[in-house]
TrEMBL record:
Protein known as: Regulatory LuxR family protein
A molecular function GO annotation: DNA binding
Pfam families the UniProt entry points to: GerE
Species of the source: Saccharopolyspora dendranthemae
Coiled coil, from the record: none
GO biological process, one term: regulation of DNA-templated transcription
All copies of domain HTH luxR-type, residue ranges: 73-138
Length: 143
């Protein structure tokens, strides 16, 4: 680590605090919570991801324990506008751009513009990748 890097001090166990016992819940330990938060912040800094990636941010094993940092995929309502969600739903159901334009009574160019914005927001490059990226959002198809 560079010498000029800002280092957050690691909390020490409070004096008089009981030592954690074997089999104790690590998520209730203040030091473990601090280290996990620091790890997640550092991985986010390194990856510089502004959009939610579709792959693990980190996957490592230490002392027989696997640690995987997976991004949380927000619900479709937070990612896409209502019209974009409607178009994404129709693509997932197998509609072509021309069919979407006809059903929604909008131009083919407008459908294409919505698709480009959806691709950008989801960081995908194809219809199949878009459907795959949205496959874990069941609220998309419950309208």
């Amino acid at each position: 680590m560079p010498e000029d890097a800002a280092v957050t001090p690691i909390p020490r166990a409070r004096e008089g605090a009981p030592e954690p016992s074997l089999g104790a819940d690590p998520s209730s330990d203040e030091l473990v919570q601090h280290l996990v938060r620091a790890l997640v912040r550092r991985v986010a800094e390194i990856t510089g991801q502004s959009r939610v990636p579709r792959r693990p941010l980190m996957d490592t094993a230490e002392l027989g324990v696997r640690c995987v940092l997976l991004p949380i995929t927000p619900p479709v309502a937070e990612l896409l506008s209502p019209r974009e969600a409607e178009i994404a739903r129709m693509v997932g159901l197998g509609y072509t751009n021309r069919a979407i334009a006809t059903v929604l009574d909008i131009s083919l160019y407008t459908v294409s513009a919505h698709m480009r914005r959806i691709f950008t927001k989801l960081d995908v490059g194809s219809r199949a990748a878009m459907v795959a990226a949205l496959s874990n959002n069941p609220d998309l198809y419950t309208q």
